[in-house]
């Protein structure tokens, strides 16, 4: 891993996480309550026709946990499972087929728009961390967006420092409910505002694709163990 990638990954995790060593990381993350299910949830249940199976897409997270009263359609479970895999550092080209070409990924220091940028963000996790362990997840809303609490332990590659990250994930889908158009990783329930935050996020989304290699095809993807 180049020094540029390491610096980017450390900056991201240091900004995002509650560290086991408080002198290393100053920011922390807490679980937030998510949105109320929208009226589109019922319509999304009709999107299950011709939905590919998790095994066909290589999705590993098939036991999606939900809060009381939350009922996900088959297509929603597939999308949530794929997103959990991505946050666990288990990307693949097949899983990212569930995203539209112009989809976006946002967190407080990243604004990745379009396939080239968001694919690099997900594959970058494999480069930045030696261990990724999902400690807890729970889907709290089956609307559009789908809302999910997520808690993950990360170990920074090369440094051995562990980080525990808690956030709310918002998964926005297209009208058919079969494709992801936007994913938001909300820390403390918010995304940053203002010109400085926007400029920093745009810079990160441009720099990461320049250093993180995305597989060109499924054969190359398989060689990486994805």
UniProtKB/TrEMBL annotation:
<dbReference type="InterPro" id="IPR032710">
    <property type="entry name" value="NTF2-like_dom_sf"/>
</dbReference>
<protein>
    <recommendedName>
        <fullName>SnoaL-like domain-containing protein</fullName>
    </recommendedName>
</protein>
């Amino acid at each position: 891993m180049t020094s540029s990638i390491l610096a980017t990954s450390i900056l991201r995790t240091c900004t995002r996480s509650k560290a086991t060593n408080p002198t290393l990381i100053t920011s922390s993350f807490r679980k937030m309550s998510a949105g109320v299910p929208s009226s589109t949830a019922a319509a999304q249940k009709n999107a299950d026709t011709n939905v590919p199976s998790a095994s066909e897409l290589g999705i590993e997270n098939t036991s999606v946990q939900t809060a009381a009263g939350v009922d996900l359609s088959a297509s929603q479970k597939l999308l949530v499972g794929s997103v959990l895999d991505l946050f666990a550092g288990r990307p693949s080209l097949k899983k990212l087929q569930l995203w539209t070409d112009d989809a976006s990924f946002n967190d407080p220091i990243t604004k990745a728009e379009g396939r080239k940028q968001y694919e690099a963000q997900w594959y970058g996790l494999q480069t930045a961390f030696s261990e990724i362990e999902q400690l807890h997840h729970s889907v709290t809303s089956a609307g559009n967006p789908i809302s999910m609490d997520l808690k993950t332990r990360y170990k920074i590659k090369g440094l051995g420092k562990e980080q525990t990250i808690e956030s709310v994930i918002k998964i926005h889908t297209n009208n058919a409910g079969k494709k992801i158009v936007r994913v938001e990783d909300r820390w403390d329930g918010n995304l940053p505002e203002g010109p400085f935050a926007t400029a920093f996020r745009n810079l990160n989304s441009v720099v990461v694709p320049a250093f993180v290699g995305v597989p060109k095809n499924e054969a190359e993807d398989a060689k990486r163990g994805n």
